[in-house]
């Protein structure tokens, strides 16, 4: 192998880090499903998801196909594939929307903001072979039932309903594991996501396997609507090694967005925390003051956290006051977003605070450049060695 191969790999890695980075950190990762082993997955709409393609090292074309459950007498149709210079001609408007809202990451399908209408069958193919498929139910985040234990709010109860032909359906919530506490050393919050599931029972028949509610409703239109859930509770954990190690993710790269907003008076601003989603711990700070959902719910505040992304969006309403404030957000304990919100005519932020932020940014950028410089030196040094020379 040429000694310049590592250099090319470095450039490629830097390019991917800049273009992709950790934008995909907040996704929910679907487990691969293989032909002959039926599986069904539930996700919350408006939150990123990655569907993995098994054997993605296949050197030929990898194609992703989609089938809407309402399409009759049709096979899954291709809407995205790796390789090639042309796009498939799409006869369905829905396929065109899916293509433009999706992208491939190492042959895996990434959908940044799926909608409930995107539910259906997704298949991954290598050549003529189907190597993975997903029957997906994107549950509507707009009807999310949020309950906070600190306010005494309760989760949805199980319900049993009568359907046609003497069938019964039990609706319940299937809960994901609790996420880690969103911060350490201080009082914080943690989340648990719940998906609507239903189990059918027929007279003189064994009960069917539970399935996401949307899939049951395709064949049983009388099944009532039931919302997905988000459960929140307070937590407090020490900043010890197990907690800090648990916050690190493999292949995570540092990512920081710094931007300025100038909202108009009597307007609403929405600050979106980069890489956050309902599937990841996230919290916000105003200056050095930490915001919690419990605090915002207990008082009539001009600030609120959205439901759909589990607090990934901070809403701010502005009246006639003039101010300039820094907001920060953290995902998995990492600072990923800083926002300067300055109303028209507001004074600049305190010079000391702005100077502190400038120093932090300069240190981060300087350290990154220094590490890249060291990598270049090591690669160039290896290229200068004579063939057969052994370093001792």
UniProtKB/TrEMBL annotation:
<keyword id="KW-1133">Transmembrane helix</keyword>
<dbReference type="InterPro" id="IPR036179">
    <property type="entry name" value="Ig-like_dom_sf"/>
</dbReference>
<keyword id="KW-0812">Transmembrane</keyword>
<feature type="domain" description="Ig-like">
    <location>
        <begin position="32"/>
        <end position="126"/>
    </location>
</feature>
<feature type="transmembrane region" description="Helical">
    <location>
        <begin position="357"/>
        <end position="377"/>
    </location>
</feature>
<comment type="similarity">
    <text>Belongs to the FAM187 family.</text>
</comment>
<protein>
    <submittedName>
        <fullName>Protein FAM187B</fullName>
    </submittedName>
</protein>
<dbReference type="GO" id="GO:0016020">
    <property type="term" value="C:membrane"/>
</dbReference>
<keyword id="KW-0732">Signal</keyword>
<dbReference type="InterPro" id="IPR013783">
    <property type="entry name" value="Ig-like_fold"/>
</dbReference>
<feature type="signal peptide">
    <location>
        <begin position="1"/>
        <end position="21"/>
    </location>
</feature>
<keyword id="KW-0472">Membrane</keyword>
<dbReference type="InterPro" id="IPR007110">
    <property type="entry name" value="Ig-like_dom"/>
</dbReference>
<dbReference type="InterPro" id="IPR039311">
    <property type="entry name" value="FAM187A/B"/>
</dbReference>
<dbReference type="InterPro" id="IPR003599">
    <property type="entry name" value="Ig_sub"/>
</dbReference>
<keyword id="KW-0325">Glycoprotein</keyword>
